[in-house]
Structures are given as C-alpha cells and as structure tokens.
Amino acid sequence: MDANSSTAVATGIGELDRVLGRGVVPGSVILLAGEPGVGKSTLLLETVKHWAQGGRKALYLTGEESAGQVRMRAERTGAVHENVYLAAETDLATILGHVDEVNPSLVIVDSVQTVVATGTDGVTGGVTQIRAVTTALVSMAKNRGIAVVLVGHVTKDGAVAGPRSLEHLVDVVLSFEGDRHSSLRMVRGIKNRFGAADEVGCFEQRDDGIHQVPDPSGIFLHQRDLDVTGSTAMVTMDGKRALVGEIQALANPTSMTMPRRAVSGLDSARVSMVLAVLQSRLDAKLQDKEIYAATVGGMRVTEPAADLAIALAVSSVLNNTPMPHTTVAIGEVGLAGEVRRVSAVARRVAEAKRLGFRHAIIPAGTDENLPSGIKITRVGDLHEAVRAGLVGVVEVSF
C-alpha cells in the first residue's frame, strides 16, 4: 500500500480538520450524526466547496431532498463549483454507478437511512438495510481509496439512529450539536481511528451558511466591562478545548413553601447540590428565595469545575456584592464546603489570561505549573473563596 494513501487531506475548514485529526484520510468512512435542521447538510456543502476549490472532485448524493433544493442552498451559501457533482438518488446500485462515472475523491451520502440496497430484506432505514448499505459503502471506500461521509439521524435521546454496528463499521463518528435558539454549533468527535476522539470544533450558523469560530469564548462572555452582582466567569473544558464562559445568578424573595429553582445551561442536580452546601456550610438564607442560575450565550456546562463559579455567583447576589469582571473561578465544591481539584487547571488559567483576565481563584491542592502574568489565589473552602472573590468582603455574611 502507498504510504501517502493514509495521509490526511485537509478539508480547508480548520475547525472540522481539528476534530478529524488534521483532515480526511483517503478510504476512510465518516459518520456525521445530528438532529434534523441543526445544519448537517449546510456544513457538508461548505466542506465540498472547499474540497472542490482544492482541485479535487466531490460527489454529493441526497436522498432526502431533490437536487434542485440542494442546488438552491448551495447557491445561497456559495457552494456551487464545477468540481462538485450533485445527484438525488436512493438506490445503492445507482449510487455506486455514479461513483464509477464521476470518480470523486470525496463522497457525501445524505442520509444513509434513505439508501436502499436492492435484494436485501427489510424496510428502508431498518437495521438490515442500513447494515447492508453501510457495509457496501465501506467496502467501496476501502477498495478505491475514496473518503465517504455518511449523514445519520439521531434518536430522541441523542444517540445515533440505526443498529449499533453502524458505529463499529465506520472509522470516525462525529456528533453535530446545536440549540435551535442559538447560532452556535459544535462538531464533537465520538470515535476516531486517526486522531483524538475528544476534540470539539465550533461553528456559527448564519443566513449565508455556516462559519467556523476559531475563538468561541467570546460568544460565551457578555459585555464584561463592569462589575455586577450575580455574575462570575469560569473556564470549562470541552474535550481538549478550554472555553471561558459566564454564569449568572438571581435571587428573588418569595413566600412559597418550596421556592423555585430554575436552571439554564447547567446541570440542575449540581446547582441544587451547590445551593445545599451554601445553605449548610455558609448559612446562606435560601429558604425564602427563588434562585435562578444560567449560562450566557447558549453554553452548556455539566462538569464539576463550574461548581465554584456557581457558588460565587449566588453568594454575590445574596451579599449584593459584585465579583470583579477580571476574575475567573475554577473548582469543584464538595459537600463539606471544600474546594476540590479539577483537571487541566493550567490550560484553563492560560485561556483566561489570553482573554485578559487578571485573577484566577483555583483549588488549593492544584500542583500544576501555572502561567505567569495572572494573579493566582488558592482556596481550600467556600469561606476562603467568597473572601477572595467578592469585592470588599472580609467576613462572609448572608
């Protein structure tokens, strides 16, 4: 085998290449899964455009839309090119015939659930059909050195629809995620035989197509030029990528027996735990207050490293004392009120420093080599964290 045949070819979209591991490997099969309407087809049209501009042929096969519909979208996003071939087809044999005729180096099948293998039992999109279609396309890709991208649907719980063997047959599995109320889109690596499986690529959906976002932290930060109560910056890790975001909290007096707890973009169970720790360990008066906690910019955070930022945002609003907008908080909060170590603190602090933050509050047990040029405060518990974070607070009082 030619050694060059296993060398990744850049797609021309840096964020996608980042997730794939430098680009597309000839002969590889990639499964791109996502909810309907999230922008999978738009991203792939952008991919074939850049692919064609590099002097390579790309074949786009659609089974869910007519060729005219896809061409209209391609014209709107500027993806029309003489090296991009388009066909609306669902028959597997005909699809393989198109590949023979065009001889492309990249084939897009949108979607694998719509393709039918004649002679194979089962309904379209069923387990037997999907397995037969995928096996044939994988064989074609390996034998001819053609990169193939399969578009897949997802179930209600976010898993790839179809047989589990579908994920085992392909080389790379990517998840395309996005909130309908946000323009941000994430391509997340789930499986990758050619690179790291925990990389994340960031994109933004606009009227003229989808655009990569090499520096997404700015989307997750509000206009942070003033110190306001109930707002705390934090740094989360999404795969290997450090993202700076903002957590906001609000507390309203209420006469309800069970005050409301509303959460957006955060793990509601972790927020409830942090509130319980504040009430128990810092004697925070929460029993007569509604608490609202949310991230900014559609960011979703589930890791424990956001605990400290949540606690400080709530403490800030309860004390009516702001956190400095140049301070970030990183750390997990334990049930005893201690601030526990988290992973990749050095990378998180470096990202905060790059964005202009001047002070980082981190767990006392952190032993990583941290970057210079930013003030570091190590705290062992929530009492120390509140005193270090809230402006002018000497004794914690709620």
Automatic annotation (TrEMBL):
The yes or no answer to whether the keyword Iron-sulfur is present is no
GO CC terms in record: cytosol
**PROSITE patterns, per database record:** RECA_2
Question: Which InterPro entries does UniProt cross-reference here?
Answer: AAA+_ATPase, DNA_repair_RadA, P-loop_NTPase, RecA_ATP-bd, Ribosomal_Su5_D2-typ_SF, Ribsml_uS5_D2-typ_fold_subgr
The family this protein is said to belong to? Belongs to the RecA family. RadA subfamily.
Q: Which PANTHER family does the entry mention?
A: DNA REPAIR PROTEIN RADA (PTHR32472), DNA REPAIR PROTEIN RADA-LIKE PROTEIN (PTHR32472:SF10)
This chain belongs to the protein called DNA repair protein RadA
Gene from which the chain derives: radA
